[in-house]
User: Which sequence fits this backbone?
């Protein structure tokens, strides 16, 4: 490709609208442009990168035995009503009516459509297992779209859905996708990690997220330094205490009598901890929630953070939200901010750490009042204990007890075991060897294609711009012809260009009539992995310069007797970073 015949609109200024580095660089490098909130046009160079990710995804999905099809973006409400998600999905599902007043939505995902297809077309165990996938544009009406392609409303996704005769088969399909995903992100040239994750709104029983590791990632992941355990922060289990509540009760501190303490103007855990001169680990936070319409109190230690996903899963509720002030007042008899477990009339669930026999400090269920020397069993009861909190760096690995490590990443892929959630709701049956009807067992598997490009940039950049991994770079080699008007420069650059094109390399020839500084800056900004510089000064000694985007040093290569040596070196470099 010739720069003068192409379109890469770069610019220097940091765009005010872009909070994260990948968003800034994708705008500045001329890869994307915003149309409206969370909706982008993929410019030519950005699209090249996206297509390269898609090709890797397609090759590996095919290799894993998945079959490509393409499903519609517009879906009728009936299917979503059948699965039960029409009411559950919330406002991220963009709904509308057509001219015949029929309800429909713009698809954020395709479980319903694929299940509908499979239940109509597949009847026998002989036709199973099957795994269908597509690379398609999805829509999710995010309340706050941001970070460019990282959290857009419209986005390109690869989604796959497997159907098996039983659980064992479904496990094999899941493993095959786990392997395929590992190959995909390796081939994209990314450092990544597969972590255990919560199944969330999609449902199902078991899932892994594939995280591209990046300091700037918005997801936190927890990994063990001794064993293979890795999970996202939301999912990471906290090892349950060894001692039963009764034993723990007798272990810690001597009992002291319960006492009320006036705490005027004390609003936060920090203020309370200072006011009473006790560590936050001596405090109990009492949080009042509404779970599917029922008030529930959740207790966690003052220095711990409640994990609402764990709470929701533990309660088995569809919707868990912090209670509004009137419910808190009804449950505690006090305004918000003074809830405590003593005398509460609602169900009480507590994190395992509350089992400790301490003289706790808790809210007093009265305005400006707290209680000290509060004892579990004597002063308050707990209906059940569970792992309800966010893991901390001080916690041991839940599997082996070893030390854990916190790092950051960006979720680019997610695989789920769905079980029979959708096949049951939508009656996707097959006939087994004995002619009996059985439910198909499903799995679903997603990759954010645009997000993968954005994550690659978060992981690979410097102060000058993007450092694309070569497999997903818009171009593999850029030739900078510094003085295009000089015949010798032009001829050498043109010869290199046609030789490399002939070898099947993706080359961009910067043939613009621009200052060398502009060409160097743009090449760095767009992040093309191999840069070849052809300039008048070098050619006087019969040399051109080759430099890798991710290295400081450059190579001077002789071209006085032709491009043979240059091509050889580029191919070697190409192989070494591919
Ligand atoms: Zn471990």
Assistant:
């Amino acid at each position: 490709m010739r720069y003068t015949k192409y379109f890469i609109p770069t610019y220097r200024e940091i765009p005010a609208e872009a909070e994260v580095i990948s968003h800034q660089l994708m705008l500045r490098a001329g890869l994307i442009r915003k149309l409206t909130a969370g909706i982008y046009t993929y410019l030519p160079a950005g699209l090249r990168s996206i297509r390269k990710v898609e090709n890797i995804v397609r090759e590996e999905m095919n290799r894993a035995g998945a079959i490509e099809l393409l499903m519609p973006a517009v879906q009728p409400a009936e299917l979503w009503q059948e699965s039960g998600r029409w009411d559950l999905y919330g406002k991220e599902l963009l709904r509308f009516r057509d001219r015949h007043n029929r309800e429909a939505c713009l698809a954020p995902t395709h479980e319903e459509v694929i299940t509908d297809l499979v239940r109509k077309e597949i009847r026998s165990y002989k036709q199973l297992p099957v795994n269908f996938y597509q690379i398609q544009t999805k829509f999710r009406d995010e309340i706050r779209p941001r970070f460019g392609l990282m959290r857009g409303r419209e986005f390109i996704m690869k989604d796959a859905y497997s159907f098996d005769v039983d659980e064992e088969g479904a496990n094999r399909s899941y493993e095959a996708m786990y392997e395929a995903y590992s190959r995909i992100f390796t081939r994209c040239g990314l450092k990544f990690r597969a972590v255990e994750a919560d199944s969330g709104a999609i449902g199902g029983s078991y899932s892994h997220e594939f995280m591209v590791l990046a300091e700037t990632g918005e997801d936190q992941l927890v990994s063990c330094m001794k064993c293979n355990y890795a999970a996202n922060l939301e999912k990471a289990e906290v090892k349950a205490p060894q001692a039963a509540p009764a034993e723990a009760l007798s272990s810690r501190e001597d009992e002291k009598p319960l006492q009320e303490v006036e705490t005027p103007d004390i609003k936060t855990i920090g203020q309370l901890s200072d006011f009473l001169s006790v560590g936050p680990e001596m405090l109990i936070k009492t949080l009042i929630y509404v779970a599917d319409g029922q008030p529930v109190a959740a207790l966690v230690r003052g220095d711990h953070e409640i994990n609402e996903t764990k709470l929701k899963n533990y309660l088995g509720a569809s919707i868990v939200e912090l209670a509004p002030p009137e419910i808190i007042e009804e449950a505690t008899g006090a305004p918000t901010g003074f809830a405590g477990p003593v005398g509460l009339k609602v169900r009480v669930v507590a994190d395992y750490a509350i089992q400790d026999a301490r003289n706790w400090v808790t809210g007093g269920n009265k305005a400006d009042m707290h209680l000290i020397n509060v004892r579990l069993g004597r002063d308050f009861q707990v209906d059940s204990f569970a792992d309800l909190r966010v893991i901390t760096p001080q916690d041991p690995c839940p599997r082996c007890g070893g030390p854990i490590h916190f790092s950051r990443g960006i979720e680019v892929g997610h695989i789920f075991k769905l079980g029979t959630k959708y096949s049951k709701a939508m009656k996707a049956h097959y006939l087994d060897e004995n002619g009996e009807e059985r439910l198909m067992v499903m799995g679903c598997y997603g990759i954010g294609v645009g997000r993968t490009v954005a994550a690659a940039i978060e992981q690979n950049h410097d102060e000058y711009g993007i450092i694309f991994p070569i497999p997903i770079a818009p171009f593999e080699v850029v030739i900078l012809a510094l003085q295009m008007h000089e015949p010798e420069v032009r001829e050498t650059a043109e010869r290199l260009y046609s030789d490399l094109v002939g070898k099947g390399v993706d080359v961009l020839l910067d043939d613009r009539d621009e200052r060398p500084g502009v060409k160097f800056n743009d090449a760095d900004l767009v992040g093309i992995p191999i840069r070849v510089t052809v300039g008048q000064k070098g050619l006087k000694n019969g040399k051109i310069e080759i430099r890798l985007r991710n290295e400081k040093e450059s190579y001077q290569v002789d071209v006085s007797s032709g491009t043979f040596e240059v091509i050889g070196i580029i191919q070697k470099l190409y192989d070494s970073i591919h």
User: Anything to note?
Assistant: Residues 224, 226-227, 229, 397, 399-400, 402 surround zinc ion (CB under 6 Å). The longest strand covers residues 404-419. Residues 246-250 have pLDDT under 50 and may be disordered.
